[in-house]
UniProtKB/TrEMBL annotation:
This is Adenine phosphoribosyltransferase. Catalyzes a salvage reaction resulting in the formation of AMP, that is energically less costly than de novo synthesis. It comes from Leptospira ilyithenensis. InterPro entries: Ade_phspho_trans (IPR005764), Adenine_PRTase (IPR050120), PRTase-like (IPR029057), PRTase_dom (IPR000836). Its EC number is 2.4.2.7. SUPFAM superfamilies: PRTase-like (SSF53271).
């Protein structure tokens, strides 16, 4: 975990003053650290009967696709509204100033399929919560949510656990946001 955490850079005042942006691109360019990151997720999920990895646009796709490949299971993208070409369902989530939406193809998950939902980071948990609602509306079974980074000061992982009874597993935590 310490190797992974050490490879994540912090960019102050991005995208606006006062924010400490946790950037995984510095982790991704280090082949050893990236392999270790995916190996940690594979070890956690390889014998859990996972059938699909659901990953959130856009940085969640990187680890999610690698994990799905390593597990030999399907990959399901949750994308921003208007980006998926087929028939979709949509779920809203709150932004600091307004609302946005994410979508999933209606045929992406079959009833009863066991999934892991993956993103790069959990802060307040808005996009993760919207993704949970999408998977549940398709009657998928959520084994767990997974992120590389948790920002516990923002309470997203705790809120998801309390509201949905779903654990959020994160490889590392960063205080401050």
């Amino acid at each position: 975990m310490s190797i992974v955490k050490s490879k994540i850079r912090t960019i102050p005042d991005y995208p606006k003053p006062g924010i400490l942006f946790r950037d995984i691109t510095s982790l991704l360019i280090d082949p050893e650290a990236f392999r270790l990151t995916i190996a940690m997720f594979v070890e956690r999920y390889q014998n859990q009967g996972i059938q699909k990895v659901v990953a959130i646009d856009a940085r969640g796709f990187i680890a999610g696709a690698a994990l799905a490949f390593q597990l030999g299971v399907g990959f399901v993208p949750v994308r921003k509204k208007g980006k998926l070409p087929g028939k979709t369902i949509s779920e809203a989530y709150a932004l600091e100033y307004g609302v946005d939406h994410v979508e999933i193809h209606i045929d992406a998950i079959e009833e009863g399929e066991k999934v892991v939902i993956m993103d790069d980071l959990i802060a307040t948990g808005g996009t993760l919560e919207a993704s949970i609602k999408l998977v549940q509306s398709l009657k998928g079974i959520i084994h767990e949510c997974a992120t590389i980074i948790d920002l516990p000061d923002l309470g997203g992982a705790v809120r998801i656990k309390e509201k949905y009874g779903i654990n959020v597993y994160s490889i590392c935590e960063f205080e401050g946001h």
